[in-house]
Structure prediction request, 97 residues.
Amino acid sequence: MPTQQEYQDILYAESQTIMSMPADTKTDINKHAAEARRRVTAKRNELTKGITTAWKDGFKKIKDENDQMQKDLLAAHKMVDQMIFEQTGDLIEGLQK
Prediction:
């Protein structure tokens, strides 16, 4: 999982692709800054999608494990309940002899 510093480095590198371009006027500088902000926001949105995908994948894995454990628990409960039923019948039958 990337750290804040790693994210900052990625976003900084994205901004520098445009901010490092030569500019001769204040208007050009402002255009570069606006484009850099746009690119950084687009990169942030791209990274956010990656984070969301990782979260969904992780959640799905945990949910699948939970569902399987719930099924296993229910099956085990049914088996033991059946064993109790059978043992109860055997014990009652033993009393009658």
